[in-house]
Amino acid sequence: MNIKILGIGCANCINLAAEATQAAAELGVEAEVTKITDPTDWFPYNLDATPGLVIDEVLVASGKPIPTLDQVRELVRAAM
């Protein structure tokens, strides 16, 4: 599974990356979590607000409220 965090590297972006990593590990999913900090690389995802969570090239969450660990876990599970 490929998970991308779209954002400039703020605390919310860092926390979302940690949650995505933890959720994948808890579900036993082999996932590569990548942080994409260059705004020009966000255009294909039609990101309205940061941070964005992309799972297997689909934007599944963006902006506030930031997804909780439980919500991220469900998003990862749904993408399996």
Please give a structural write-up.
The chain has two helices and four strands; from the N terminus they run βαβββα. By secondary structure, the protein is an alpha+beta fold. It has a single domain (2-79), classed as Glutaredoxin (3-Layer(aba) Sandwich), CATH 3.40.30. Helix 1 links the parallel strand 1 and strand 2. Helix 1 crosses helix 2 (69-79). The N and C termini lie close together (8 Å). The model has no long low-confidence stretch (mean pLDDT 96).
> In sequence order, what are the helices and strands, one letter per element?
EHEEEH
Radius of gyration: 11 Å
Which percent band covers the strand fraction?
15-25%
Structural class: alpha+beta
Mean pLDDT: 96
Main sheet attributes: strand count, strand direction, barrel closure: 4 strands, mixed
Give the CATH class. Answer: Alpha Beta
| The named CATH superfamily | Glutaredoxin
The number of E-state strands comes to 4
The helix count comes to 2
Distance between the termini: 8 Å
| Strand line-up of the largest beta sheet | 2-1-3-4
User: What overall form do the CA principal axes indicate?
Assistant: globular
Helical percentage: 25-40%
Number of domains: 1
What's the CATH topology name?
Glutaredoxin
